[in-house]
Amino acid sequence: MALETTEIQERLIENFGSKISNFDQSKDIFTFEVDSDINTAVILFLKNDSIFRFHFLTDLCGIHYPDNEENRQFAVVYHLHNWYENKRIRIKSFLNGSNPEIKSLSNIFLSANWMERETYDFFGINFTGHPQLKRILNMDEMISFPMRKEFPMEDSGRTDKDDRYFGRTTTNQPIVK
Predict the structure, then answer these.
(1) Phi (first) and psi of residue 165, to 5 degrees
(2) Confidence of residue 149 (pLDDT cuts 50, 70, 90)
(3) Is position 175 within any domain?
(4) In sequence order, what DSSP letters do the residues of the chain get, joined into one string?
(5) Residue 87 belongs to some domain of the structure
(6) Average pLDDT, integer, range 61-88
(7) 132: domain range?
(8) CATH number, domain containing residue 86
(9) Integer distance in angstroms from the first to the last C-alpha of the chain?
């Protein structure tokens, strides 16, 4: 019997109530939002349930929404995959903008370790319970988080870059060699 999204939705609401919301089927992926305080409980339920069997964490990433209200400025997005039914789901948890933190999944999925470190490195989202949460790609001395919207795109004082090579001109200026 094929795993239906209505069954996933009904069982999640039955087990977690109003802490799960905004169910949506977009193309081939079923999406819903989870309160950040129950993210590990929901994911463990989806992984360990004998019917659902979402045993593979495909991706984990962060998003910054600076124009949202304070308690929804950041989100962590999880993509889980059930190989038996070839079913994918997306789970989104919104976080507080002044102190974005959520429980780590590194003890549930080993692959979450590096993905959480990358999300911390670029967005500053703290994964509580992570065994070694530190920068993974940027320098340790860096004090900002480059994927946040307040981070400047480029250094305006750079002289080694000609914007015309990147299609950033408003007029058709010839490139002189």
Answers:
(1) -70, -15
(2) confident
(3) no
(4) -PPPHHHHHHHHHHHHGGGEEEEEEETTEEEEEE-GGGHHHHHHHHHH-TTT---EEEEEEEEE-TTS-GGGSEEEEEEEEETTTTEEEEEEEEE-SSS-EEE--TTT-TTHHHHHHHHHHHH--EEET-TT---SSS-TT--S-TTSTTS-SS-TT--S--GGGGT--SS-PPPP-
(5) yes
(6) 93
(7) 15-140
(8) 3.30.460.80
(9) 66
b/e map 2-28, b = 16+ CB within 10 Å: ebebeebeeebeeebeebbeeeeeeee
Q: Is residue 112 included in any domain, yes or no? A: yes
CA angle 86, 31, 117 (to 5 degrees): 90
pTM of structure: 0.83
Query: What is the per-residue pLDDT across 101-140, written as a single tens digit (0 to 9) for each?
Result: 999 999 999 999 999 999 999 999 999 999 999 998 988 8
Number of domains in the chain: 1
Written as one letter, the residue type at 31 is T
In a domain, 95, yes or no: yes
48 has pLDDT over 80:
yes
